Amino acid sequence: MTDDVVLRAEHISVTYEGERPTHAVRDVGFELRRGELLGIAGESGCGKSTLAYAVARMLGPPARLIGGRVLYRDRTGAETDLLALEGDALRAFRWSRLSVVFQSAMNALNPVTTVGRQFDDIFRAHRPRMRRPERYERARALLDMVGIDPARVRAYPHELSGGMRQRVVIAMALALEPEIVIMDEPTTALDVVVQREILDEVQRLRDDLGFSVVFITHDLSLLLEISDRLAVMYAGSIVEYGPAERIAADPAHPYTQGLLRSFPDLAGERRALRGIPGSPPDLRDALPGCPFAARCDHAFEPCGTETPTLVPLAPGLAPGTSAACHLHAVAGLLPEGRQP
Ligand SMILES: Nc1ncnc2c1ncn2[C@@H]1O[C@H](COP(=O)(O)OP(=O)(O)OP(=O)(O)O)[C@@H](O)[C@H]1O
Fold first, then answer.
1. Closest residue (by CA) to atom 16 of ligand 1?
2. Whose CA is nearest to atom 3 of ligand 1?
3. Same domain as 246, residue 185
4. Out of the domains of life, which is the source (predicted)?
5. Is the peptide bond before 62 cis (omega within 30 degrees of 0)?
6. 240 in a domain, yes or no?
7. How many Å lie between the centroid of ligand 1 and the Cα of residue 23?
8. Measured in whole angstroms, how far is the alpha carbon of residue 48 from the centre of its chain?
């Protein structure tokens, strides 16, 4: 793992058990660098949340982690395998080093206790030496940091708007200054203006505090705007991975190309929205070949039978980008500078 990587997931596979098991995440790997925002995009049901929960060690039955490793690297270079952590060590890791903000987190605040009390619970559990006045001051400072009047420390969740509650949840996730924050559709339930305000806040906090973010949403245009790098998932696998700017300008995988055509232009240019015809495959089935082949305009002979692996694109085409597509496997064999 290079110096700037804080988290590295390798070969993660997750299955939801049942009469016909769902293979929701299929041999996925990614790296998260210090201070970066890594976006994970893909249609509903492609395995984004399952991947995030696997990395955060938050899966429960019927989900089963079939295999893989998740390595965390601290500032001294020491590595920890998250999948080997248990009990107190795992709980401590989850708040202090890595925290998670869910889509519905704002509804998970305890309705019968004040916001301040809920911060207090975090500090009492994880910072037992902190005294009461210090805990109180820290809760006020955290509220202030996410743009909420510190006096609201005495408020009950129902006295706050949805946007404010989501800000409280983000402040809680940052309470112990984690190095990694996983955000799963953190603003989807909010109206667009509030969404924008909160995203700006997250960007600012990341710049100030230096944490890394894994940001999950089906909203690709949003991700292209806020991500440093992007992983595009399809049917449980990452099909394209690289710098967000590069993917926006020159998507390599036909699925990414289709997704981009499904959204309005970022610059606001109006153009016809064209979705991708067909629907994703059933993840309960074995998927021989490329899982996108049936919907792909470019499918050719190997796509129906050989599963493409995520490989770096040919040198000179797109530095730092990988794609799982036979078109590019062919391109990789071409002399430098030649397009497929
Ligand atoms: N508790 C569960 N039991 C069985 N199957 C599940 C369960 N949760 C999710 N799945 C299945 O796992 C697959 C991946 O779901 P997941 O929620 O990870 O996708 P997602 O990309 O995050 O979608 P969304 O944006 O809708 O949350 C889907 O086929 C889904 O139906």
1. 47
2. 16
3. no
4. Bacteria
5. yes
6. yes
7. 10
8. 7
Judge whether 339 lies within some domain. no
The set of protein residues with a Cβ atom below 6 angstroms from ligand 1 is 16, 22, 24, 42, 44-50, 62, 218, 283
For atom 26 of ligand 1, which residue has the closest CA?
44
Quote the ligand 1 centre to 87 CA distance (angstroms).
26
On whether residue 27 sits in a domain, the answer given is yes
* pLDDT tens by residue, 206-226: 998 899 999 998 888 889 989
Residue among 19, 20, 22, 184 to mutate when testing ligand 1 (max atoms within 8 A of CB) = 22
Its domain, for residue 95, covers 5-231
Amino acid at 326: H
Alpha-helical (H) ranges within 97-182 are 115-126, 132-145, 162-173
Q: What is the atom index within ligand 1 of the atom nearest the CA of 283?
A: 29
Residue whose CA lies nearest to ligand 1 atom number 24: 44
Q: What is the CATH number of the domain that holds 80?
A: 3.40.50.300
214 contacts 38 by C-beta, under 8 angstroms:
yes
CA of 24 to the centre of ligand 1 (A): 7
Instruction: Give strand ranges (E) for the chain.
Output: 5-16, 22-33, 37-41, 63-73, 79-81, 98-101, 180-184, 212-216, 229-234, 237-243, 311-312, 322-323
| Among candidate residues 339, 30, 328, 21, the one with its CA nearest the CA of residue 182 | 30
Task: Specify whether 254 is located in the same domain as 197.
Answer: no
Shared domain check, 94 and 125: yes
Whether the full predicted model's pTM is greater than 0.95, yes or no, is no
The residue whose CA is least distant from atom 28 of ligand 1 is: 45
One DSSP character per residue, 25-38 reads EEEEEEEEETT-EE
Low-confidence ranges of the chain (pLDDT < 50): 270-273, 331-340
Note the pLDDT of residue 265: 53
What is the count of structural domains for the chain?
2
Q: Counting atoms of ligand 1 from 1, which one is nearest the CA of 284?
A: 29
Residue owning tokens 């949340």: 49
CB 199 within 8 A of CB 221: no
- How many whole angstroms from 44 Cα to the centroid of ligand 1? 8
User: 241 and 207: one domain?
Assistant: no
